[in-house]
Design goal:
165 residues
C-alpha cells in the first residue's frame, strides 16, 4: 500500500497512487477536468493548457507564456500580409508533456522526414508525469517536416509533424 504524502501547509495527506491512477484515467478517456469530493477529501484536477494569471518564482522562465502585446487604439498603417500557412496536414500533440522522437536514447527515431506513415504508425512518445504515451499518426501520408525537437515541452494540440497526403 502506498504511503500517503503529507501536505505541510494544511497538515493533510493524500494517496499518491490514487492521484496517479486518476490522472491515467483522465488521459485514457480524454477528460480535462475532474472535481471529486467526499466527507474526508476533495480533489480538483485539470489537464491541458490553461491561461496563467501568475507564475510562482520556482517556474523556469521558458515555461511562462509571454504577455500579449498591447494593441494601439488607432492603427498607424495596415499590417503586412501574414505568411500563408504551410501546405499539408499535421499530427498534433494529444496531450501536454515532453516530446521524445525515439523509444530510448540508443534507438533510432520512430520516424524521420520522408517516412511514410499510416494511422496506426507510432511517430513519437509524449511523457507526462512519468507516464510514457506512444503517439500514433492517426493519419496517412509522408512526413515532410518535424516541427519539434527531441526533449521539447509540447502543449495540447501543438503541431508535431507536417504530412503530405
Amino acid at each position: 500500500m502506498a504511503k500517503p504524502v503529507e501536505n505541510e501547509d494544511k497538515g493533510e495527506s493524500f494517496d499518491l497512487d490514487k492521484f496517479r491512477k486518476l490522472l491515467q484515467l483522465m488521459e485514457k478517456y480524454g477528460v480535462t477536468e475532474v472535481n471529486l469530493q467526499n466527507d474526508e477529501e476533495s480533489w480538483k484536477v485539470r489537464r491541458g493548457p490553461r491561461q496563467v494569471a501568475y507564475a510562482p518564482a520556482s517556474v523556469p522562465a521558458e515555461y511562462i507564456p509571454a504577455a500579449p502585446a498591447a494593441v494601439p487604439a488607432t492603427p498607424a498603417a495596415a499590417p503586412a500580409a501574414a505568411a500563408p500557412a504551410p501546405a499539408g496536414i499535421t499530427i498534433n500533440a494529444p496531450t501536454v508533456g515532453t516530446f521524445y522522437s525515439r523509444p530510448s536514447p540508443d534507438d533510432p527515431a520512430f520516424v524521420s522526414v520522408g517516412s511514410v506513415v499510416k494511422p496506426d504508425t507510432v511517430v513519437c512518445i509524449i511523457e507526462a508525469m512519468k507516464v510514457f504515451n506512444q503517439i500514433q499518426a492517426e493519419k496517412s501520408g509522408r512526413i515532410v517536416e518535424i516541427l519539434v525537437q527531441n526533449g521539447d515541452a509540447v502543449g495540447f494540440g501543438q503541431p508535431l509533424f507536417r504530412l503530405e497526403p
